[in-house]
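Attaching the record inline, Q. Sequence:
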Amino acid sequence: MGVFAAVVAVAWAVIALLCLLAGVRRIVWSERLRRSGIEAAGTIVESQFRSGFAGRVWYRPVVSFRTQGGQRILALGPVRRRSAYPRRAPVLIRYRAGKPTVIEIVDGPGEGPSPAGYLFAGLLLLVVLVTFAAAVG
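Structure, as predicted:
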C-alpha cells in the first residue's frame, strides 16, 4: 500500500469515526434532555441563516416559548437545514431547566436529526473502508 493510499485510508477512518462520535453524542444529549428536560409549547418565529461550505446557506429555527416560571425565551434550535423554517409553526420543545436556551424540538418543523443518520453514515464509511482494504491487500 502506498503512502497516498495509507493517508486516504486514515482520513477516511477519521471521518467515519467522527460520524459515529456525532451520533453517540447526539444520543447522549437527547437522552439527558428526555430524562431531565421540561417540555413546552413553542412557535418558530424566524429562521437564522449562516453561510456554509461552498456557498451553501443553512437555516436554524428560532423558537419562542415560555418556561414553567412564565419567562419568555427565544432559543436557537439545534437542527439546521437548507431551507427556511415556516414562521408561526407550532412546535413542542424540551429545554434544560437550568439553561432554557438549550432546546430540542420534539415535534414539528425542525425536529431533531436522528442519531441513526450519523451512526449509519459512520458504519457505512467503515464498511466501505474495510471492504476496500480487503480487496486491495
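The mean pLDDT is 86. The first strand starts at residue 38 and ends at 51.

More tomorrow.
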